[in-house]
Amino acid sequence: MSKILMKGNEAVAKAAINAGCRLYFAYPITPQSELIEYMAKMMPTVNGVFLQAESEVSAINMVYGAAGCGKRVMTSSSSPGVSLKMEGISYLAGAQLPCVIINVQRGGPGLGDIQPAQGDYFQATKGGGHGDYRLIVLAPASVQEFADMASDAFDLADKYRNPVMILADGMLGQMMEPVEFKTPKTDEEIEELGRQHEDWCICPNQDGDLKHHHEINSLEIDPLVLEQHVIKLYKKYDQIEANEIRYETHNINDDNEIVVASFGTASRVVRSAVDELNAEGHSIGMVRPITVWPFPYEEIAKSIGPKVKKVYVFELNTGQMLEDVKLAVSGKVPVEFWGKVGGIVFTPAEIKEKLQACF
Amino acid sequence: MEVIAKRPQSLTAVPFTYCPGCMHGVAHRLIAEAIDEQGLINKMTGVAPVGCAVFAYKFFNFDMAQAAHGRAPAVATGMKRARPDMHVFTYQGDGDLAAIGTAEIVHAANRGEHISVFFVNNAIYGMTGGQMAPTTLPDMKTTTSPYGRKVDDIGYPIRICELLDTLVAPYYIERVSLLSPADIVKAKRAVQKAIQYNKEERGFTFVEFVSTCPTNWGLDPAKAQVWAKENMLPFFKPGLFRDKGAEVKS
Ligand SMILES: Cc1ncc(C[n+]2csc(CCOP(=O)(O)OP(=O)(O)O)c2C)c(N)n1
Ligand code: SF4
Ligand SMILES: [Mg+2]
């Protein structure tokens, strides 16, 4: 298939439809509005459901209802709107409902601004909503990856009956890049995807006899029963940690003097700086977590070669993934951090300068 | 032996968790009977609220969802849009529907979602132990209005049927009372109509039940009925607000 030049927001929307998403509920917010607008335009052409909800709270609860019916369903928003979805995300996790949530992050806290930022890392990976649960969180670094993650996210959601978040940012949402799309799923394939859930989801009885009573529910009033439920969730999360960690390494070898870690949009800027310095004769390795939960702790630890003096973390926040990298490095070498906030993206020159100061 | 009364097929055998004399059980039964009568049990689904009826997902004998506090109309919207071949209702209390879930109910009604909403107004937060509700009457004492609801401070009770009746889309809106056997017979007719319209995909249908909470009102069930008749019915007047089906016929 040939490549199409598209904005990240539109590319991920198109890819979601290709992946069989036929229900989408959301509320407008910059910088993700192209996503909701694309869905408004395209969902009717595939007999899908597009509904502009009265709030992000309602949108995520519509997702809960549709996911409870076993259908591929998605919502998207940007930081302040994602905060409003957190109640619903906790319920989705508790009731084990598969769905996809996209956060096109902007600057915060509060209303912040509408420029790219990575300040929602904690919210996405460490809870955000109440209770003991985990979200699978994918962090794309290019428009192509953003689009590819749509189908990955739905597959992971279905496989584990768990909500999945794609943690993007305003830069990726707005940026245009050439994208190659996967073959769209046929109506029959989408039907089949829905049928895999019919042993637990809300669905009609096929014939006249009453057969099932499925409950979409996160309430277990008996502590001993809730304990078992949460333990079951934790076993699932263990499985996800064992099977689904995704990351990318670049120029990791035994000569590395520095290893850098960065995710999403930030990692692209960092990578150009790293490449320039390596061309000048340095040896810098790079790790980019693609799943930020589950987090590649061991993989980062393994990337630290014998000559590494320092691990450097760069983010568009005040140091959030930094905490996970520190856990991974676990005191082996010093971990340094530099970031930019306010919706300002650092330049390769700035990163270069920070790294040069280490030699 | 001839069976003259039995549990509707649309209710499970799970015993109700309601206090003696509580009307939630009566409301459940009316809904279940209407679903049985319309032969909808295999295509029916519903949403339980947060409130004393939180376990409604166990009581109705078909697939059910339990929603976050106030969000049932949004959840039901997602369900109906995902499974247009099924019929969806929500069951909600006054705190759930008229306080925390005000946006969800107004907008589901305004979209004319093809769902039925059953709203149990007992003028109090039953489940959490008797706090003030948006429907608590002026000067009525609750645990969070220990000196009585002061309308200058906290406003008047909200009349939801009247509020929804300002919207264009709703198909059917009626307020009924559960305060006497005769009223319950009338309430049954309203529930039947809502479920029938739901089956026929006519649009958004809404039935409010004026009910009681003997436990948190601190009254025995019989006195609670009398108190509600004297105090609630003058403010929450039963009546048919909207029936687009009847308009069509006449
Ligand atoms: C987000 C949230 N806030 C508060 C509560 C606590 N809570 C549980 S039930 C309830 C009130 C229910 O009252 P109502 O809807 O009138 O139902 P009733 O019990 O009277 O039938 C409240 C405030 C909750 N569960 N979730
Ligand atoms: S607390 Fe009130 S509303 Fe709740 S079950 Fe008891 S009587 Fe019914
Ligand atoms: Mg109440």
Strand order, biggest sheet of chain A? 3-2-4-5-7-6-13
Number of helices of chain A: 13
Any idea of the CATH topology of the largest domain in chain A? Rossmann fold
Structural class of chain A: alpha/beta
Strand order of the largest sheet of chain B: 2-1-3-4-8-7-9
Helix content of chain B: 25-40%
Q: What's the overall average pLDDT of chain A, rounded?
A: 97
Please give the alpha-carbon distance between the first and last residues of chain A: 45 Å
Number of helices of chain B: 11
What does this structure look like?
The complex is a heterodimer of chains A (359) and B (250). Chain A has 359 residues and is an alpha/beta fold. In chain A, 41% of the residues lie in helices and 19% in strands. Chain A has helices at residues 8-18, 33-42, 56-68, 79-94, 121-125, 143-160, 170-174, 187-195, 223-243, 264-279, 297-302, 321-329, 348-356; strands at residues 4-7, 23-26, 49-52, 73-77, 99-105, 136-138, 163-169, 176-179, 215-216, 247-250, 258-261, 284-289, 291-293, 310-315, 335-339. In chain A, helix 1 packs parallel to helix 2 (33-42). Chain A is globular. The relative contact order of chain A is 0.13. By secondary structure, chain B is an alpha/beta fold. Chain B has a single domain (24-243), classed as Thiamin diphosphate (ThDP)-binding fold, Pyr/PP domains (Rossmann fold, 3-Layer(aba) Sandwich). In chain B, 40% of the residues lie in helices and 17% in strands. Chain B has helices spanning 24-37, 56-59, 72-82, 94-100, 102-111, 151-154, 160-164, 181-199, 214-217, 221-235, 244-249; strands spanning 44-48, 64-66, 87-93, 115-121, 124-125, 131-132, 172-177, 205-210, 239-243. In chain B, the strands form 2 sheets. Chain B has a 7-stranded mixed beta sheet, with helices on both faces. The longest helix of chain B is centred in the C-terminal third of the chain and has 19 residues, at 181-199. Chain B starts with 23 loop residues before the first helix and ends with a helix. Chain A binds chain B through residues 23, 25, 49, 51, 53-55, 57-59, 61-71, 73, 87-88, 91, 95, 201-205, 207-208, 210, 212-219, and chain B through 9, 12, 41-43, 45, 47, 54, 57-58, 61-68, 71, 74-83, 85-86, 103-104, 106-107. Residues 50-53, 69, 93-96, 120, 122, 124-128, 133 of chain B line the site of thiamine diphosphate.
